[in-house]
Amino acid sequence: MREKDVSPLLVDVQKAREYRLTKRNPKPALEGRHYPSLKRLPSEEEIYDPIAKKTRYIRLAAGEPSIYKEDQAQKVVLSDIIFQNGKIIVSHTSPNLVQFLTLSNHNADNEHRIKGKKIIFKEINLARDAEKELEVEESVARAKAMVFSLPFEDLKGYARVCGVNVNRSVAEIKHDMLRLATKNPKNFVAGLDDPMTKKQQMIMDALSCGVIEISGKGAFWKFGDEKNIITPIPTGRDGILWFTEWTATDPEGESVYKEIEKKTQKLLG
């Protein structure tokens, strides 16, 4: 096997590896028969090679040193890949089969699967699964901790950006933010650190203070009952999100944002 053909997914190959079908019948006709007695996997398929950055054909062929079709003889005898009672255990002495299953589009663990291909199996790796679960739990714990540690006014501002109704009690707002933190902890934490979040909070404060107005027609400066156009907003776009992006990416928008910040902070004291 050439060095460039070694996938980063192929690790710890000295151990026997177990793969299991992902579709399990929870109520089989025969007790204990949650999987078909035999399930044959295609021995040839087109896959995406993340190292070569192109699609390649792989096939499991008897007596061939490589699984890549271009490295094999023109005529080969394909080997069977059969799951018995829902699983297949592969010894480290069958590296081609390990590599084939690792790169298969039907492997749920293959991050480079070609879209549209049906997931059929996954590798059973208790240590890896436990590590992933621990990472998720740690992310959730960090996100929840931020809900309790942030000054409430900061949390309230972020809640508005997240679409949470802030015209309620502190407990209700924190309750909803905890739900968001639990649902997607990485995005929750990333959103707090995103400079665009701070800009959007300021713009929403400006709306509440009557410094500006944003409608389907555009963003406007407000002077009592009068208003002057700042910029039109493209049809079909969310006004607040588009205006926030405009103040961050357009030179005129950056100048407008400074003025909004100055006026709003003066009103908020």
Question: Could you walk me through the main structural features you see in this protein, from its secondary elements to its overall organization?
Answer:
It is elongated, with a radius of gyration of 28 Å. It starts with 16 loop residues before the first strand and ends with a helix. The mean pLDDT is 91. Helix 2 runs antiparallel to helix 4 (170-183) and helix 6 crosses helix 7. It has helices at 95-103, 126-149, 152-161, 170-183, 185-193, 195-209, 239-249, 251-268, and strands at 17-21, 38-41, 44-49, 54-59, 81-84, 87-90, 121-124, 212-214, 218-223, 226-232. By secondary structure, the protein is an alpha+beta fold. The chain has three domains: 3-124, no CATH class; 138-193, no CATH class; 196-269, Rec A Protein, domain 2. The strands form four sheets. The chain has a three-stranded antiparallel β-sheet with strand order 6-1-7, with no helix packed on it. Strands 8-9-10 form a three-stranded antiparallel β-sheet. The chain is built from eight helices and ten strands.
Topology record:
Layout: E1 17-21, E2 38-41, E3 44-49, E4 54-59, E5 81-84, E6 87-90, H1 95-103, E7 121-124, H2 126-149, H3 152-161, H4 170-183, H5 185-193, H6 195-209, E8 212-214, E9 218-223, E10 226-232, H7 239-249, H8 251-268
Antiparallel strand pairs: 1-6, 1-7, 2-5, 3-4, 8-9, 9-10
Helix pairs in contact: 2-4, 2-5, 3-4, 3-6, 4-5, 6-7, 6-8, 7-8
